[in-house]
Amino acid sequence: MIRAKISGTGSCMPEKILTNQDIEKMVDTSHEWIFARTGINERRIAAEGEFTSDLATTAAQRALEMAGVDAQEIGLIVLGTISADYPWPATACIVQKNLGATNAYAYDISAACSGFIYALASAVDYIVSGRGKKALVIGAETLSRIIDWSDRNTCVLFGDGAGAVVLEASDDETGILSTHLHSDGSYLDLLYQPGFATRHMPSVSGIEAHLPFLKMQGNEVFKVAVRMLTEVSLEALHTHNLGPEDVSLFIPHQANRRILEATAKRIKLTEDQVCINVHKYGNTSSATIPVAMDEACRAGQLKKGDLLLMSAFGGGFTWGSALVRWSIQDN
Ligand code: ACO
């Protein structure tokens, strides 16, 4: 059986840091409130003229370099994002051009914070079906551009960044063991971006100012997120008759420290099994998992043969998990 393995990881975070103290000057909030409710200290914000495709391209270049793969060897680029450069064409196509990946076809996936897991599943299918041998999977966002910076309920939570992995056909027992995806469109009102798509176009007489910005009922999202993240993580483990004690590292979508801790507790994982970097970057939606994975990989926290569990939850609602027998040899 052909399996897909991760052979390289990369990430790219904007240089500009926005601290909780900076946000105190923008809306009626405090560092104490933000940190106690979310675990977030600071987040990165893209510079003027720095777009999702730019962050994605650099993250992809770093992943290709680690894998020792040339851009022209890539057959597929799939990119999870909800803050694309344009409504269309896909940001993945812009990344393809930037990389010179002339032999790849490219598309975006809109699954909000589950975007990376959805994109990964899609690329795994590409390799396992025998359609191609090498793919790039990217999660990239400039959420700062779809946040209402006068809304304290949301603006404290999010940040910008990108992460990427190279997937290749595996020649040993390591690789992606399985992916598990779910959606439920009935929760739309709890988390969505009203405009601008065809339901809410900018009017000729003037743009309705609130439309482009993300809307969220945070406390309702919280409850469903913990339940679904737990269920889909256990689904991955149970599929392989594995338990929490078998997990070397759990990389959950970095939404909020309280969500991560509540989920880890329900799965019965210990603190040192859980990867958390939300304090540095906030919630970067589809980028959180590949960024955390890249940091863990480069810090030597993942060794060949380790069992990596990833799970995500986001707007849609969408949720998903992936279980990986880690392939990259620790240097
Ligand atoms: N600073 C100070 N006070 C605030 C702020 C703020 N930034 N934001 C909200 N408040 C106030 C509210 O107005 C409310 O005041 P009130 O009681 O006078 O009405 C009070 O704090 C409590 O508000 P809640 O929304 O009930 O606070 P909660 O404890 O639920 O925390 C939070 C809010 C952090 C958003 C939490 O609900 C959460 O993390 N939800 C998950 C949302 C999320 O992560 N979404 C991302 C996308 S989905 C995903 O990634 C999983």
Number of helices: 10
* CATH architecture type of the largest domain: 3-Layer(aba) Sandwich
Quantity of strands, as a count: 13
What is the residue-averaged pLDDT? 95
Structural class: alpha/beta
How much of the sequence is in beta strands?
Answer: 15-25%
Overall tally of domains = 2
Percent of residues in helices comes to: 25-40%
| Sheet with the most strands: spatial strand order | 1-7-6-4-5
The CATH homologous superfamily name of the largest domain equals Thiolase/Chalcone synthase
The oligomeric state of the chains shown is single chain
Helix and strand run: EEHHEHEHEHEHEEEEHEHHHEE
CATH topology of the largest domain, what is it called? Peroxisomal Thiolase, Chain A, domain 1
Residue runs with pLDDT of under 50 for 5 or more positions: none
Features:
331 residues, alpha/beta, Peroxisomal Thiolase, Chain A, domain 1, 2 domains, four-stranded mixed beta sheet, 13 strands, 31% helix, binds acetyl coenzyme *A
How would you describe this structure to a colleague?
This protein has 331 residues and is an alpha/beta fold. The chain folds into two domains: 171 residues, Thiolase/Chalcone synthase (Peroxisomal Thiolase, Chain A, domain 1), CATH 3.40.47; 149 residues, Thiolase/Chalcone synthase (Peroxisomal Thiolase, Chain A, domain 1, 3-Layer(aba) Sandwich). It contains ten helices and 13 strands. A five-stranded mixed beta sheet has the order 1-7-6-4-5, with helices on both faces. Strand 12 and strand 13 form a beta hairpin. Helix 3 packs across helix 4. Acetyl coenzyme *A binds next to helix 2, helix 6, helix 7 and strand 12.
